[in-house]
Amino acid sequence: MNFHFSNCGGLLQPSEDDIRSMDEKVAREMTQLATSEREHALHDLHGVGVEDGETASKAFATARLEQLEEEIQKVKEGTAYTEAEIQCKDYVMNKNFRLMFLRAEDFSARESAARMIRYFDEKRNLFGTGKLARNIQLSDLNKEDKACLRSGFVQILPKKDASGRTVLAYLKGLRSTNQKRIVGRAMWYILSSLIEVESMQTKGVVYIIHHIEAEVRETCLGLAVFAANILYRIMPLKKVGTHLCTDSLEVRPLSTAILNLMKPSDRVRYRCHFGSNKECMYSLRTFGISADLQGKFKLDEHARWFQAQEEKESDHSAAKRDSTSRSTYRNSQVIGPTDVLFGRGAPVRDNPGNARFRKIVDSYILQYETAERLEKGCIAYAIVVMINESNGRFLQRNNDGLWSEVDAIKARDKVHQTFRNVRHQK
Fold first, then answer.
1. Which of 87, 211, 217, 256 has the fewest CB atoms within 10 Å, counting from its CB?
2. Is the pLDDT of residue 187 over 90?
3. Which of 169, 155, 172 is nearest to 211 (CA)?
4. Which range, of 49-53, 97-101, 111-115, averages the lowest pLDDT?
């Protein structure tokens, strides 16, 4: 049995009027679609006639990229995006990175810009400022994050749908924690691994929310909505179908909240399957999805995926260390583009790393000036970490006239001094 739940705009106890209102809204949105759009939505849901690969022309994509930059300039002020831009402009301006957001929003420049802003804001919330301008790695997750990820509560199913599209499942019965931050960091990592694959961006992903024989509590529903928010409003991932499988009408608030997160094109690609686990699995087959979620969840494939991620990052780290040892090791006399130099005069002032460093300090000046002494130290330390994580060093000439890297305490003092200089200049 398939049906749409309503949206009450909140999490608990929608009224009957709210239920009817959302039902009418979804029906109205469906009828307002052109025949070709309605057929396309249904084909996406059932995995029929799905096109393989990018359909947008190079000229079209280039034009949309230019429009995206214009839209970002309108809304970026005061957001985490500006911090990421200061840290590494090449990262936020990367063409392939931006195309992910355009594909997720059907090449709407305005919606893509809004998603990018939300993306960096949430990334800062989950991982802090220092990791804004680089991809999140497995090594960025702590012990609790990795345990949550290993649990398989969110996993890529081994079987793709009838059209060869990846199926992602949220399995409430496997979640090992109710801590929102841990759930968010684990989910961020697995979704990030998906968006790195271009075929995932162009063909899209099918999403299953499995909430059968699971405890229904406000906290549980809230976490599922939090996870759905990351998927639908933040990560640059194209969703071509969403299926909620449940055996309890008490899950209605979850369905209504998810519908509220969706844009109209997502809502017409949403279905709720009500019944036993077996009945829901049979229902999914009518949509070209052969999901083996019967009885005890199988984690063998997910364990292999996790191991593959560990090996991939280990190989990458080894290659990076080898490259670093040959060319950009820590005591090299070659000044890198992110190195911060001690000293005075035009050569130091005009050094690219010092110019970037001053921009970072400028972006934190208001926060620093209003902070307590202990908080000031934390801000200074965070900036030191930010420089180090972008392969930057704090360098000072020694008695032999050679550049040498200073310790963390001296680097932090340099940050404090720069804040004081900025204050005196204003």
1. 217
2. yes
3. 172
4. 49-53
